Structures are given as C-alpha cells and as structure tokens.
Amino acid sequence: MSLPSLPSSLPTINLCSKGRVLVRVDMNVPINRDSGEILDEYRIEAHSRTIRYLVDSDLPVVVITHQGRPGDPEFVSLETHAKALSKYLGMDVRFIDDVIGPRAREEISKLRPGEVLMLDNLRFISEEVIEGEPQKLANTYLVRKLAPLFNYFILDAFATAHRSQPSIVGFPYVLPSCMGLIMENEVNALGKVLNMRGVSTVLIAGGAKVPETVKTIKTLLSKNLVNKVLIGGLVSQLFLALRYGNNKLLSNVKVDQNVMNDAMDIMKLFSDKVVLPMDAVQADGKVIEPSNAQSMLDIGPATIDLFINYLETTDIAIMTGPLGLVEVDQFAVGTKDVMKAMVDNAQFTVIGGGHTIMSAKRFGLINRISHVSTGGRAFIQFLADPYLPGIKALELSKSRFWV
Ligand code: 3PG
C-alpha cells in the first residue's frame, strides 16, 4: 500500500505563552430541532481540555466555532454552547451574540487573564464559508477585524481542518499559530493508524452524508488504503439502487450526477472490495431483500453476520457513520452489533462523526474504542492525505512566525 507521509512537527500549545489567544474549536454539535437542546456534547467536552490548559496558563481566551450550515435547522446562535462549556470548565464563560462587530471587539479587549469569552456562530459572517488560499482569506473582514486583537491563534478544530475557510487558514497566515490539544491528539492517534498501514484495514461506511462518503470511499480505495469497505446507512441505498436498478431506493437520497458517476466507478473498479447489504429492515420491521426495498432503516441479520465475518480477521477497523436509523432503538441493532464486533476483534479501532459517537456512548462501547475522533469527514480525509488545509496552514504559519 502507498502510505501518505505524515506532517512534520507542528507548533504545540506550550509555545503560546503570553498575551491574548484566539482558539478555533469545532463545537458543531447535533441539536434538537424543536427544543434547541444540544444532543451530544462530546466535542464541547473534548475542546474544554484545551481551553482549561489556556485558562490554567493565565491567558485571556476567546473561543470561536461554527455551528450548522446557513439554512439548516442546526444553524443557531451559541449561547447554549457557552453554557455547556462553562459546565465542563467549572467556571463562567462569557458569551456575546456578535462576531466581528464593535461589541465583540470591545468585550475581547476587556478580557482579563484566565477569563473565557465565546463569540457567536462564525458562519453568521457569510465570508466564513468562502473556500480559498490562506493569503486571500487572511484578507477577509473576519480575519482583519479580529486578528489585530490577538497575540496567538490556536487551531484546535481538527473536525473542520479539511475546510480551507477564513477561520481555519486565514488566521494562521497573520498570527503565530499552533495546534490545540485536540488537534495534537488527533494528529498523533491517526498518525499511528497511518504508521500501521500494511496490515488489514476495514472501513465501515454509513451515515446520511452520501456525497462526502462516496468521495471518501473512492479516494481510500483508489489509494489502496483499505482492504474492504462495508457499506450501510443511506449511502448503501445509492449503491444498491445502482446494482439492482431499484430507483425506489433513491427517493430519499439526494445526489447529483457526479456522485452517481463516482458510485458507478467504485462498483466497476472495486467490486471485490465493496461489501453491500444483502438484507435490510424496512419501516414496519420486516426483513427484506434490497432488490425490492423501498426504504432501508437498518441492515438485516444476514448482513450483520457477513460484516462481522470480515471484522473477525481485520487489524484496523474504522467506522464513519451509523448503519441504520440509530435514533430509533429498533433500527440501531446493525450498528450496535457491528461496532461490538469491531472492538472485540480489531487491534486498533477508530470512530468519528457525531451520530457514530452518540451511538458508541449509548451502546456502552465508547471506552473500548482506541481512538474517538472529533472529526467526521476530516478524519477520513486525514487518513487519505494528512495534509489537510488546516495542517498546511499551521506549517505555513510555522515558517512565517516560528522559525
Ligand atoms: C463536521 O461536523 O464535519 C464539521 O463541523 C464540519 O462541518 P461542515 O461539513 O458543515 O463544514
């Protein structure tokens, strides 16, 4: 297998020792659409470690993150996030419903050592979703308004490091920057997976982010980085629709022609590596064959056995996305059994993505996973090529400020 090379040593948090720090975290969490309640605080708890370190170092700390995407029900203001962060830090986190305006900048300048301020959702500033080169994004209002108020930038948002957006790559261009503790932990743990390459690796790909997952599967197979891909969730409906010409399975799968073409390429080029469900559970609980299915809310018992069989002989098992509608117990069986087989058999296990982490917690398996990544797409992309835009931005910042 051709191994991607690892980033050389990146600046670490202990270098940011004096002055005001801006910390980019990823507290993009699942939200209950009706109540606005946060459904899983894993990322918030994880990032609180980095913030605690900075508070204990007596630095004034400003926290920034995005939440949801414009137009989504999860695209909300961050007051609840600040409260959750206060809980994990055991101290008051101030919140201001502003990002770059005069009120935010005034609050930032008033911040004292050891205090924490959280700004509002970065994506309320439309510039934040522009993708581009660091130099160009350093010129956005977001970066120009905030950067002069800080001495250091800390990139802890591993889960967004695959996005070349202003808050990820623009700040490191103009401020001395380093990795936060979560970023460092991810780079080390996933680097270990890369170093283990050559041993057998199974990817379990599920979830509802169909275009992203299809792209990931294609990249990992094209680079010969996984031996088998076991597919479930909404993603499998696309592949099964293509295999059986069953268009009913596409009714709730939104993809464009490019994604269709990628899925067809995968079926054609890697038919020996892709394992699709042979049965499925439909809404009324009946087990049916995919060729006749209209909806697939979980993988069926024969598929569970088949997937477990592959996991019994693998060294590394990686799960990105659940295999069914895990929010409903009746349809969580496949994900639970397969996750259990992962931890019972594989030498090194990795999971990532909000719903997968939530499931691992519910099944009582989270403490048996070797590495729980805060990243969804970012962690899979890192395995295919660790030089994510955020990592490259830190290297560039190192060459501009630290050497
Ligand atoms: C994620 O949850 O994968 C990250 O927060 C990135 O979110 P995005 O896909 O909306 O950029």
Please name the defining characteristics of this protein.
403 residues; alpha/beta; Rossmann fold; 2 domains; 6-stranded parallel beta sheet; 15 helices; globular; binds 3-phosphoglyceric acid
- CATH homologous superfamily assignment of the largest domain: Phosphoglycerate kinase, N-terminal domain
Structure ligands: 3-phosphoglyceric acid
Strand line-up in the sheet with most strands: 3-4-2-1-5-6
Question: Largest beta sheet, briefly?
Answer: 6 strands, parallel
Strand content: 5-15%
Topology:
Elements: E1 21-24, H1 42-56, E2 61-64, H2 79-89, E3 93-95, H3 102-110, E4 116-118, H4 134-137, H5 141-146, E5 152-155, H6 166-174, E6 177-179, H7 181-195, E7 201-205, H8 210-222, E8 228-231, H9 233-244, H10 257-269, E9 274-275, E10 280-281, E11 287-288, E12 298-299, H11 301-311, E13 316-320, H12 333-345, E14 348-352, H13 354-362, E15 371-373, H14 377-384, H15 389-402
Parallel strand pairs: 1-2, 1-5, 2-4, 3-4, 5-6, 7-8, 7-13, 8-9, 13-14, 14-15
Antiparallel strand pairs: 10-11, 10-12
Helix pairs in contact: 1-2, 6-15, 8-10, 8-14, 9-10, 11-12
Bound molecules: 3-phosphoglyceric acid (3PG).
Residues 26, 28, 69, 159-160, 163, 376-377 line the site of 3-phosphoglyceric acid.
